[in-house]
Amino acid sequence: MSRNAPRLSRRAIRLSRRAIRLSRRAIRLIPRAIVFLAMGAIVLATSSGTAAAQDELDVGDIHGQTYDDDSGEPWIDPVTRFDVDPEDLPPPPDIELASLIRSDVLATGVAELEVDDDPLPAAFERHLRAQQVTEAIRTELREFDREIGDHRPRIERLEHSIDRHLQTERTLRTENAILREAITQSAITTFIGSDESETIGLDLGLDERTATTVILDDAVRRDHLDRIARNDETHAQSVADRRALERKLEGLRAEINRLRTDRRLRWQDLRAAEIAVDDTIVHFERTLHSRLDAFVVGTDIPLVAMNAYVIAERTLQETDPECGVQWWMLAGIGRIESLHGHFADSTLDDEGTTTDPIYGLPLDGRILSGGEELPDGVEAPEATGRSEETTVQVPAESVAPEALASAEESASSASAVPAAAETSAAGNDTGPGSDSAAVTDAVSGSDAAPAGDAATAGNAPVAEIVVKRLALILDTDGGRLDNDTVYDRAVGPMQFIPQTWSSWSADTDRDGADNPQNIYDAAVAAAGYLCAAANFTTAAGTDRALFAYNHDDDYTKAVNAAATTYSRLVRIDDVDEDTTDQPLTNTRPRGIADDPEDDVVDIGVSDLRAWLDSQAEDS
Q: What is the reported pTM?
């Protein structure tokens, strides 16, 4: 029992010291755990705060800086919305406005026309602004990546330095443990009084020679204590330096976490900015069509009417390529007949339909002018099925001098354009309504006696009085088109007589109805009627076609004058050569498929209002 007591005591001491070392190690780990827990709490708080801020950004305008653009829609400048410094914006991208002009409704060339107070440039600037902001955010993301990349080697160097300090501290602690073990072992041996030279420090990895020599005298013990003190001092300095490095490391890691959090939020901003770019394109397309009721710059033609005239021209290029009718001829007719659907209180809506139906005078055969100049006993020419001028020859002595002067003045100014044709075109109520044979007779003058025949026959002076009379056409449509159940009236922006409309009607806008009050339907019908009368390859053919539309030379001259002016004012690009077989493909509204059995030329423009509503819902 006495021999084993020292051994057991030494083992107990070793075990107790191991427990002390473990407890010290645990104590050292506690601050580190506290630091990690604190950092985790900070990161969670930061994440929740940024998430809340992002939710607030998604929910409403946190900047409160909005303004209304030309369309009246509220819009937040993306510079404000995404908190971008205007000085950080890159130059606007090199994008041509024309590259965005693609339309399912407007014919090629018409979409590029400028209109009065055009909102399209502002919509284009909005698109460029969104593109700039998007690129600025991409630049920020690249900067985040660069900063994070720069921090990584610094972190690796700090981790390496901290590991060296930890290794040094472990070495110093091990050396101090050996020295303290040696001192303790010597004290125990002295206290027990044993002369045994039993090996000590086996748990410390000391060889037998070293373990034996640690039991030394007081001088050696003092040297050990000095070494322990120096090691402790070095250890403390290393710990201080290491902790400073660890704080720096923690700061860098926190900075990386912040950068990653900011980068993640900025990446979400990038996604939102890219969606905003797409929204500006949708807005541009909607703006492109919202201009339909505006007037083409320098003209009195609303864009929707211009679109209808061009579509009618290209439709006839397909159905009657030898006709050669041009859009400006149709525009000339549209101006004289109804000021392009803007007669009286009516305008054209964005689908080309008159806002108030346009009706001409009832075709009741009334005398418009010249009847009051006829002397008593001379009957006016009877009304016929067309409006026309008739020259009545009467003895000169039977005509009052003032009436004779009026008749001569009227004859001398026959080539002038009547003011009424310019100011109240819809009052020119004849409309198209005669066959080509009658047109030929009217142009050749075969239905009126040549001037001077009566004078030659009777050898007496005569006066010529021109009597203008409306056509007499009783109701042919039951009032369905012209709202008149007694007489027919010319209807719509191109002033069609109901019976003529029944032969030439067209459902150009593909809304399921052929409507003479719709400029698209009426323009194609008018082009078809004109081409049936004559072609436009010569001046004579043009005049013959226009005279067929309205039997009035002054009318023909007025239309020609207006058409010539339009042709000089407006240039419309032709359809691309590779699409001449389907010149209006780009005007087809979305969602309308071709019918392979449908032989009708597809010119598009169907239910524009529904199309715009669908765009608004998509955006």
A: 0.63
